[in-house]
Amino acid sequence: MTENITINMPEIVPLYPLREIIAFPYMVFTMFLKHEDLLPFEEAVLFNNLVALVKIKDETTGELLADLHEIGTLCKVVSISKLPQEGAKVVLEGVIRVRVLAIVQQTPVALSRLEPVREFAEKSMVSEALVGSLNALLKIALSYGRPLPDDVMKMIDFIDNPARLSDLVALYLNLPVDELQKLLETIDPLERLKKVYMHLTNEVQRLQIKGEVQAEVTKKVGKSQKEFLLREQMKQIQEELGEEDSRTGEVNELRHKLERAKMPEEVYKIAEKELKRLERINPASPEYTVSRTYLDYLIAIPWQTSTPDNKDINQAEKVLNEDHYDLKKVKERILEYLAVRTLKEKTKGPILCFVGPPGVGKTSLGKSIARTLGRKFIRISLGGMRDEAEIRGHRRTYIGALPGRIIQEINRAGSNNPIFMLDEVDKIGVDFRGDPASALLEVLDPEQNFSFTDHYLDVPFDLTSVMFITTANLLDPIPAPLKDRMEVITLTGYTDEEKLNIAKKYLVQREIEENGLSANPIAFTDEAIMRIIHDYTREAGVRNLQRNIASVIRKVVKEIAQGKTARPEITQEVVSELLGPQRFFDEVAAEKDRVGVATGLAWTESGGDIIFIEATKMKGKGDLILTGSLGEVMKESARAALSFVQANSDEFGIPKKDFDNTTIHIHVPAGSIPKDGPSAGVTMATTLVSLFSGRPARRDVAMTGEMSLTGRVLAIGGLKEKVLAARRAGVKTVVAPAKNRKDLDDIPDNVKEELEFLFVEDVREVLEHALNG
Ligand SMILES: Nc1ncnc2c1ncn2[C@@H]1O[C@H](COP(=O)(O)OP(=O)(O)OP(=O)(O)O)[C@@H](O)[C@H]1O
């Protein structure tokens, strides 16, 4: 179909050069013009109200008419209204495309000779499809909120003429002026429609991406805000309906609990503040959980909950005796301590510290104290603890923060006056994460612990009702400030007879019950227990004894379960049969006396022990090699011993030259176990004299003593443990410093009877006894 041009178009028409805009046919638009630009529009009256609007090619040029595009738009002047100040508003309506053939007059008004551009818009399947798609695309663009003038909107639905549609849509597109000019110059309506379609597709894509990005952002930012608003709305609705939402229910429940938690006033205030904060936090946020857990902790802590003390000291004595054999002195001191405690509940007295080798009953004494008083019992081990936070907790700012062990355990016990046993205070460590010992000081020091502040709780908790008991294997490694605040109760190792009694009176019965053999009681003969003590254990305490008794009983239980005839009595033969080959031998009797090997006595954290110090010599530069994981102090005493022997060699019948060009090697077996301390001095000297004089050292003479450079023998510690170890190993004579004679009082009579004791002032006396020949 051909578009009919129904206007009466003169051959010559005034022309107005356009700069930044393009006029399209069918476009109704307004221009605000200065007075000097008005003339072509005013002159239009003479030319059927028509004026040609043509874009200048190069806007920077001064010669406007010289450089015009070829195609422009013929427009009808609808109205000219002068503005009050200056210039006028001109309303125009695009009519048709025109081609400028010539400029026939330049001044005072430009006149141009034009020719209408005829557009042929064949309606075809292609054009119809394009029109349909364009319409659909437009709707999509509109759905992204791109506004379209109302009149254009209305028209679009009715226009099926591709030429008109493409021009209308072109107006709608946000295209640069040059691009619009190209569309104006595209005469073929179908071609133009295609171009417009492409531009619109791009535009829709752009809008789509923009929309997606915007949606993503709003989704992210808005989600929590939206949720919060919805929740608030829900709350209001529920309030109006007289219902309670689950969160308000939770908060109300927490409030009730807070009120009933009997916390101190200042803590209550903090908890209340936290609860108010919790109300404002979005429950889906991690912060909510942090706040909630904190409140749960504050509520659960036994601020005022305590167990009533059983203050009957006689009853306490009975319980202690029921649970433990002997330990007279220890029990005496515990009872004194308890007596004071029961009279004055919150004493600022020292803390009990049980020191002794493993398995001597430190922990079980603590348990008994808890049982006599009727208090809860808590036990934590401080061994290897290096992080202060383990005691005092992490600040809540850390993710996953928790209170320290002290508060956690008190919380678990549910009482503010438990017996709190801190094991292995001698093994507490220090590193970059802080010093747990100083945190522990705050816990234990009665001057400070009424307001112990855990980092997590951040509120003080009164620990004065808690009865702390510490345990250690050795006293020396305990940090001095901690030691200061403790009342040390030493538990020494047991003699074989004591072990036998403990086993007979306590351990066997305990294990029978433990292993469900009560219905089929069995009896251990004394010899059987002694065999376990001698052949299967080597220890100061009774832990391994208990373990081996348990092992025998379990094997008996297994036999009963298998239907074998029950054994009425456990004899030494049965023990050997059930426990297998002997595990420990008499180390002293096992070998003969040797040159360069002397028997020493050591005090380790597992009690006393015997050590065989060995020395050998070889050709060399006179070095002293020391092996066997020796500590600094022990190395120094080896050097001192060598100097002493060398300096006094004449006395021992050793020629001076024997030391020339000789390298000496001293080794202390059980090389992987670290050893330290000065008490091996006399043994080192004995070994060296034996080595150089060729006199064998008596294996059954065990010695202990620090030695000065002149040969004086100085006092040592742990004599009882050492003597017990010597006896266990089959030693006949114990040589010890004269200053330790007083320690004999602690040694049981039967042990004293079995061993010969020699208290010496000078190492020469030792040599006299220990060396043969
Ligand atoms: N005098 C005793 N009377 C009765 N039983 C005892 C006695 N001494 C120790 N025991 C028992 O020996 C076992 C080990 O004791 P416990 O666990 O108290 O040792 P410990 O000194 O705490 O050792 P560790 O230093 O290794 O913690 C317990 O079953 C305990 O009851």
Automatic annotation (TrEMBL):
Pfam families registered for this protein in UniProt? AAA, Lon_C, Lon_lid, LON_substr_bdg
Q: What is the catalytic activity of this protein?
A: Hydrolysis of proteins in presence of ATP
Q: Which InterPro entries match?
A: AAA+_ATPase, ATPase_AAA_core, Lon_bac, Lon_bac/euk-typ, Lon_lid, Lon_proteolytic, Lon_Prtase, Lon_prtase_N
> Which residues catalyse the reaction?
S679, K722
The processes (GO biological process) annotated in the record are: cellular response to heat; protein quality control for misfolded or incompletely synthesized proteins
- A GO MF term: serine-type endopeptidase activity
Task: Provide the primary localization.
Answer: cytoplasm
Known partners and oligomeric status: Homohexamer. Organized in a ring with a central cavity.
Which family is annotated? Belongs to the peptidase S16 family.
Q: Which NCBIfam families match?
A: lon
Q: What is this protein called?
A: Lon protease
* Gene, per the UniProt record: lon
